[in-house]
Amino acid sequence: MSDTPTRGILDGYRVIDCSIAMAGPFAAQRLGDLGADVIKVEPTAGEWQRFASAGGAQGNEINVSFLSLNRNKRSLAVDLKSDAGREVVRDLIAGADVFLQNYRPGVAARLGLDYESLAAINPSLVYVSMSGYGEDGPYKDRPGQDLILQAMSGAMLSAGRAGEPPTPAGQYLADAVTASTAFEAVLAALLHRERTGEGQLVTVNMLDALTTLQMQELSVYTVGGVPQKRGTEPNAHVYIRAPYGVFATSDGYLALGFADLEKLGEVLDEPSFAGLDPEVHGWTHRDELYATVARHLRERSTQHWLDTLLPAGMWVGPVYGYEDLVADPQIIHNGTFVEYDHPTEGRIKTPGFPYRFAKTPARIDRGAPLTGEHTAEILAELGVSPERTQELLDAGAVAQTAVPMPVGSSAVPS
After folding, report:
1. Pfam families this protein is in (predicted)?
2. Which of the following is catalytic: 17, 33, 146, 175?
């Protein structure tokens, strides 16, 4: 889709993506955004995520969930329960650089796609195994679902009121953090291979990813010995002094943090804040301070407080919904969202890339593929004759889907 001749940083690397749902496909997509040739190996009927639409957002041929997690990939639709299908994948592995899977425990071994089997084919392979809780241990067979992992991570009890139900994150946080962790791990393992020629097994699990994300917070507890204790007001974090949180205004909400209490008192015309030390009273009077600030902020509009508190040096910002976020001037300036044309879904507007490279920019060369869109193309690259490809199609060992001609528009910042 892009006419830009610049190659991506990972151009020349081949990634075999045998993952499903969000964390694995998101990690593989990040590799594709940087130029890797990502081949999505999926069942002949299509990956599960094609049929599970987050938010009920359906598409023409591809639902939004799948569309958002599988750009810059080619689709090989193959029956891994068949000998012929597994042979195709093994042939792919022989020339691949990265293999990524998040199968349930034992499935990879049953399919002959475990690390030992694939390392015998390709010793330089970087093999990434993703799981909910780890490769073994008492929880290895439990479902690794985002909300459950958020709950187990301890993070939910670091915000809100004591005695009230914890509030989950507004993102699929466990999946997203695990995807970024796997992405980082692949890059590190490829660097090791460049230096030594060695491939290796890399394991990533959601529970560890979310736990280590809280490096600072958990160290306050394990090293500093400070208990994780919520107060009677909805402070945004138990380990940050007041006022810190989201406050109602007369027409919306405002986020405020780390305010100098004396200066804030002057702006709010609150004499009781005079002489208060933020690093002392911000802890000892956390709930009282929150309640007082909340009472004042409810009296005026969000824009009034932004216009008043920002010039006074306060750390303050609006609480956005998605409509506000997409229209924000800084988001537009950054080119955070990109637009491109998809052959079946039309004009697509979606978040772009979290990184910038001056010489080797990330880009979108193709949108999410239809099931088996590239099966014949990939088999041809493996040296499979057209006649043999047709035999595999007739036997149901592989599948392909014909697609319309692409629109051919370059991806551009929105």
Report:
1. CoA_transf_3
2. 175
